[in-house]
Amino acid sequence: MTPPNRSHGKQRVMPTLKPRELMQDTPDYAGVWQAHIITLFPELFPGVLGASLTGRALHEGRWQLQAHDLRAHGLTKHRNVDDTPAGGGAGMVLRADVVGPAIEAVQRRAQGGTSGRWPILYMSPRGQRFDQAMARDLAGCAGVTMLCGRFEGVDERVIEQYGITEVSLGDFVMTGGELAAQAMIDATVRLLPGVLGNADSTVEESHSAGLLEHPQYTRPAEWQGRAIPPVLMSGNHAEIEKWRRDSAQALTRARRPDMWEAYEGRKRPDNAQDSAQDSD
Fold first, then answer.
1. Dihedral sign, Cα of residue 37, residue 39, residue 45, residue 47
2. Where in the chain is the domain with CATH 1.10.1270.20?
3. Full DSSP string of 64-90
4. Which residues make up the CATH 3.40.1280.10 domain(s) of the chain?
C-alpha cells in the first residue's frame, strides 16, 4: 500500500529545551489548519473526526488535531482542576489557575511560527449559537483552540483574561464540551481546500445560501410507488435549477421561519434602494 501523502505542510521548527522525537504520530505542520482541544478527556479525540472524509484528510495531513489534557496542569499531587463555586451553590468550577496556564501553554505551541487569526472558543450553553457562517470564518483562520468545560463551567476570569468567545451548539445542556467541539470542527474542516471531493457540495448544501437544501433523489426512478419528480429527469438544467431553488425556499419558509425571515431581510436593502431610485 502506498503511504499517505504528507506533503501538505512542512514540520514547524520552534525553539524548545525538550528534544523532539524524530518520528511521532502527530507532528506539527506549518501552514496547515489546526484544532487544539483543551479537555479532561483527551482520549475522546479524534472520535468521529477520525472517520470518513475528515479522518482521511487528517491522515493525509490536510488539517491537524491536538488534544491537550487539562489535568496535566492540575494542582497538588492529585492534579485537582476544580473547586466549589464562590458564594456557594451546587457543583464544581474549573479553576482559573489551572485553565489559564493550560491555555497559555497551548497557545504558545499553536501560534509558534504561524500568522493569521487563532481564536479561542469555549463550549458553553450561554454562548453565541454556532452556524455555517461561523464555520466558514473558522476555516479562514490559521487554527482554533477549543476549551471543553465540565461541571458548572470555568472561572469567569479566564474568559475575560484571554478574550475567549463562548459558543453554543444549541439551546440545550450537555455534560461536557467534547461532543460540541467535534461537531464544530467537523463543520469547519469539510470547508478546507481538498477535504471534500466536490467543492460544489459546500455551495449547494443547507445554510450555505441562507436556505435549507432542496430535496435529493437518486435511482431507482420509482420506489414504493413514489417517483422522482419528472423535472429532475427532464435534462432541462434551467428548469431543474428553478425547481431546486423553489423547493429550498418552500422548505425554509415552512421549517425554519427564522432563517426565512433573515433570508428575506437580506434582500430588503436592495429592494429599498431600488424603490428610492425609482422615486427619484
1. negative
2. 206-279
3. EEEEEEGGGG-BTTTTB-EEPPTT--S
4. 26-189
Query: pLDDT tens digits for 67-81?
Result: 999 999 999 999 999
Q: Are 152 and 177 in contact (CB under 8 A)?
A: no
CATH of span 26-189: 3.40.1280.10
Closest CA to 123 of 89, 169, 67: 169
Task: Indicate if the alpha-carbon torsion angle 121, 30, 197, 25 is positive or negative.
Answer: negative
Buried b (16+ CB within 10 A) or exposed e, 126-157: ebeebebebbeebbeebbbbbbbbbbebbbee
Greatest C-alpha distance within the chain = 77
* Residue count of the chain: 280
Instruction: Give CA torsion, residues 72, 105, 148, 164, to 10 deg.
Output: 150
Spatial CA neighbour of 188 closest among 125, 119, 244: 119
- Topology of the domain covering 206-279: Trp Operon Repressor; Chain A (1.10.1270)
- pLDDT given at position 266: 87
CA 36 – CA 145 distance, rounded (Å): 5
pTM: 0.82
Backbone angles phi, psi at 165, to 5 degrees: -95, 125
Cα–Cα distance, 99 to 82 (Å, whole number) = 10
Tens-place pLDDT, residues 181-198? 999 999 999 999 999 976
Say which residues have a Cβ less than 8 Å from residue 67's Cβ, sequence separation at least 6.
37, 39, 42, 43, 44, 45, 46
pLDDT greater at residue 197 or residue 130:
130
